[in-house]
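OP here, attaching both records as promised.
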Amino acid sequence: MGLLGAPKVDKLLKKRDIKGLIKTLSYRKRASVRGAAAKALGEIRPSEAVEPLMSAMGDEDAKVRIAVVRALASIGDESTIPQLVDLLRTETNSDVQAELAMALDQLGPAAVAPLIEVFEAGDVGVKRVTAKALAMIRHPSAVAPMVRALQSDGLSLMEDLSTALRVMDYQPDMSVSAACYLVALREWERVVELGAAALEPLIDHLEHKDDDVAHDARLALVLIGDPAVEPLIEAFKLRSQAIRVRAVQALGVIQADRALGPMIAAICPPPVGSKDPVIRTATVMALGEMGSEKALTRLSAALNDPHPDVRDAASEALRRIGELNAEARDAMDDGGEESDEDEEMVT
């Protein structure tokens, strides 16, 4: 049958021929005809079309599936919610996913419980999609599971969940989950105010793919100061290269003496020290920033490190420490002279 033999959807709609439109959902030769039939059924909204429309969600054409979802949303049968939620979980086309989310929003609060169930059991991709649907519905019961996921699912979901929670008017408290929310939204001043609660998500963000975000996370840790030292030391010992580099940079600025031991050990020859020249270089530079004379022996030894970047950093660090200590001595001398003058004036 050629194009002239294709079903005339407009005539079927005008006659309200529901059976004819349902049959047209299976017309294989033209996806546009199947989509038009689904749209027409959405205008008529017959209950008997629900099952055939659900079957049509298996259509290989994404535009047809979008038309089918819109028709189902228009009919508004709440019995379709579990199937639509399951389709949201398995659908791979982002446009169809968006239509499914809007359809579930249209179907209202009855969709919330099954969406939460799928959200909590799903992988990162499923959580991302269902979070958008839950944000559209904006039901209060969805807030708690999304806040819990903020802490458990790490960087991969933090921004998506925070965006969804902001749409739902979530008001953060002083918890770690609230810190995850604020970190993801880049509200750095509020993050710093949270103090210790913000340390875990901030350290995770030290390896963010956006260098500016990683830099701001490091600055926030520096501003939190002393409470960040132990977590930063642990991160420096155990985490990825990106986190270790930025953690030691933060430690160098905070200048806590208790960080000196692990930092000095890291620039020792292996197996005591780090095998990674990037880590050794960053650590040498941070020790120079700290300006402690306790590091002089190991920094002098680092002048013979096998990697040129480490040797260059050691030379600069030693120069830096020399300048800092000279300034300190000059300040002490100036202070002593002022004190003598003060004593003479008192006398």
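Record two, same layout:
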Amino acid sequence: MEKFAGYGFNKSHSVAYALIAYQTAYLKTHYKEPFLAAVLSSDMDNTDKVVKFVKECEYMNITLNPPSINTSNYYFSVTENQEIFYGLGAIKGVGGAIIEIIINERNLNGDFTSLDNLLKRCGTNKINKRVVEALIKSGSFDVFGESRSSLFYSYPESMKMADQNSKNIQQGQIDIFGFSEEVFENKNKSKGAEKSEEWEAIKKLSFERDVLGFYLTGHPILEYKNELKNISPGKVYHVFNNNIFTVGCLDGLLLVQEFESSSDFYPKCNLSFKLESGSQLDCPTY
């Protein structure tokens, strides 16, 4: 190997890579939270890599919090108590311009107290229905103390009131009903009381996966973990060239089930499993 390195790989490149490897190893050891936050931010558009680094956070006992509208920045960030907060920029359907508006308003006038408060302060010009739904599903509004289902049920009315309030301000009108903070808050409480029960875990996690690309706060299979211990003693550790080297009873969530005709007399079914580790395993069956 040493002889081959003399001509097969430029020595200056070898030195550069060795230096980078040393620097990153030092940062990962002594500044692990900022290092993982930076790595997550650099690849936050690549779901597979994000899942890999999220598992690395778990392995290194680093707390990774779900996105929060009052704490998260565009990129993954580290708090004073050395916890990482999920970046708002990694949520599907939420653009950079919208995040900039939200963060600027938060920095100028303090934390948001409710969804109505956010829509009233930021306006509904760019914060549309798709953005609000993505933020609700990702858990960004959990800080408001309402269930995600309640927010999802009441947000159309919230957007309608905020839109009317913006139009009144532009036209220099004052509504006789005020559109004051008190009116917004009272409306918010009454709507929340109508439907305050949270979604079932499977539905909540499914929505989470839709906007984040993976399950962050849990996994649907965990509900049956104790039962699976009795029937699934093994784990799938290595998959290489479609050969499974360590096999147990597969404990994963079936995502895709596709049937297709094959060259022989046996129908073929392609199964895709989402494992607890976050990785996906494709299994052709006959």
